[in-house]
Specification:
- There is one protein chain.
- By secondary structure, the protein is of the alpha/beta class.
- Helix content is 48%, strand content 17%.
- It has helices at residues 3-16, 20-29, 45-54, 68-73, 77-82, 100-113, 128-138, 153-158, 163-169, 173-176, 181-203, 209-221, 229-236, 240-252, 281-287, 293-297, 302-318, 361-370, 396-404, and strands spanning 34-38, 60-64, 88-92, 121-125, 143-147, 225-226, 256-259, 275-278, 322-328, 334-341, 344-351, 374-379, 385-386, 392-395.
- Strands 9-10-11-12-14-13 form a six-stranded mixed β-sheet. The chain has a five-stranded parallel β-sheet with strand order 2-3-4-1-5, sandwiched between helices. The chain has a three-stranded antiparallel β-sheet with strand order 6-8-7.
- Helix 17 (302-318) packs parallel to helix 19.
Length: 405
């Protein structure tokens, strides 16, 4: 197959993958003046923004603030942005121009007086906490937030991409749609290097990028483990509280997830430290140099990689009204994922990388502790069937769909 034919196929697949976030952003812009779209680099924020701009009523203006020419347009930001009245203004890499937030507040307030309340600004950024702090201080009540994750199981499935391909390569479009596994791994390793050489110094100039890279790799080797800060600090030769700051950065960049333990007052001796996951399975495999599915299936991280992959998709599908936790007692009762609503545990999910899944007694005890009746075991198959302890086996795609409804 020629390179042109491969490119044609890739373009067709890109067109087929409709990102669910486009609908969310479009709906929010119909009701609020500004939307902040957050997500890691290369996750598809710019593609989504350009798609919106292409057919936005009244037209749109796109500025990439990493380009000096576009930053120059905002030297007199107030005059320039007011001249775009009636258009959707898209500011990509907004962290490059933090002073713009004060200008946006004045324009939004003036437009409110004139009767325009929605669809004015779309702001794209990579560092969630930093951007949310800046925007919430100046745009309180004027802005909504959308966290954009990599391509998920529902989006990949709708495009005909096999679940194992998504699991191996992860959901970053350039990795998922690479011509072969070798090119996909090469893209992910370049992506990891770019983050360490460029983004870490940009967002945290005082933190040593090399040490954070070592930490990131350590977390990959210990995927889904309860965080042992003292052991990691000793291995890296840094103080224990320093590990918190390093992990904070990786969480802020949406590259790592801290899954907090359920801590309700049950009279039980509960594990109190969080579990830590590399969020995108493809990046996890890139950090561990796993190129093919056979490499992954033969590696000790396989089961926990599948667990993290499922957890990230399930949390995304569960939405903001359900808060995710894990549950573990000191005597071994455990639930991989607890979804709570209104402070009450609602659903218990166990994850098994086996075609013959069977929940353990500790899962049943934990569910009884929390009085959870909705009990599911996610496994790699597609058939749903009843299990012991009141649980039901279900494929990841089906449970994602159930949570979405």
């Amino acid at each position: 197959m020629s390179s042109i034919e491969k490119l044609t196929i890739q373009v067709k697949i890109v067109i087929m993958i409709n990102r669910q976030f486009e609908i969310t952003v479009r709906q929010k812009l119909q009701h609020i003046a500004a939307v902040v779209l957050l997500g890691p680099r290369q996750v598809g924020k710019t593609t989504l923004a350009r798609t919106l701009a292409h057919n936005w009523p009244g037209g749109a203006v796109y500025l990439d603030l990493e380009r000096p020419a576009d930053r120059l347009k905002l030297e007199d930001a107030d005059s320039y942005l007011r001249a775009q009245q009636g258009k959707l203004v898209i500011l990509d890499e907004i962290h490059r121009a933090p002073g713009v937030f004060d200008v946006l507040r004045g324009i939004i307030d003036d437009n409110r007086q004139a009767g325009q309340r929605a669809g004015q600004f779309l702001l794209l950024g990579s560092a969630a906490l930093d951007l949310m702090r800046q925007s919430s201080e100046t745009l309180a009540g004027r802005v909504a937030y959308v966290d954009m994750a990599p391509i998920n199981t529902a989006e990949a499935g709708a495009a005909g991409i096999h679940l194992n391909t998504l699991w191996l390569r992860g959901g970053f479009p350039d990795s998922l749609l690479a011509a072969d596994d070798a090119q996909s791994l090469e893209w992910r390793r370049d992506f990891i290097r770019s983050y360490l050489e460029r983004d870490v110094p940009m967002f945290a100039p005082r933190l040593p990028a090399e040490t954070i890279g070592r930490l990131w790799t350590m977390l990959a080797h210990n995927q889904g483990s309860v965080l042992n800060q003292a052991r990691i600090a000793s291995a890296l030769g840094v103080a224990n509280p320093t590990i918190d700051r390093y992990i904070d950065l990786l969480v802020d960049l949406q590259l790592v997830r801290r899954l907090q333990p359920w801590s309700g007052n049950l009279g039980k001796r509960l594990v109190k430290s969080p579990k830590v996951y590399v969020r995108d399975s493809g990046l996890l495999h890139g950090l561990l140099a796993l190129e093919t599915l056979d490499d992954l299936l033969g590696h000790p991280v396989c089961g926990l990689s599948f667990e993290g992959f499922c957890i990230d998709n399930l949390i995304q599908a569960a939405g903001s009204l359900r808060v995710p936790y894990f549950y573990r007692t000191q005597v071994g009762a455990e639930i991989d994922l607890v979804l709570a609503r209104g402070g009450q545990p609602e659903m218990a999910i166990e994850i098994k990388r086996s075609m013959t899944p069977s929940p353990e007694k500790g899962f049943a005890i934990a569910c009884d502790d929390l009085q959870i009746t909705q009990r599911y075991v996610v496994y790699p198959g597609t058939e749903a069937f009843a299990l012991r302890h009141g649980a039901q086996a279900m494929g990841l795609g089906d449970l994602v769909a159930l949570l979405g409804h």
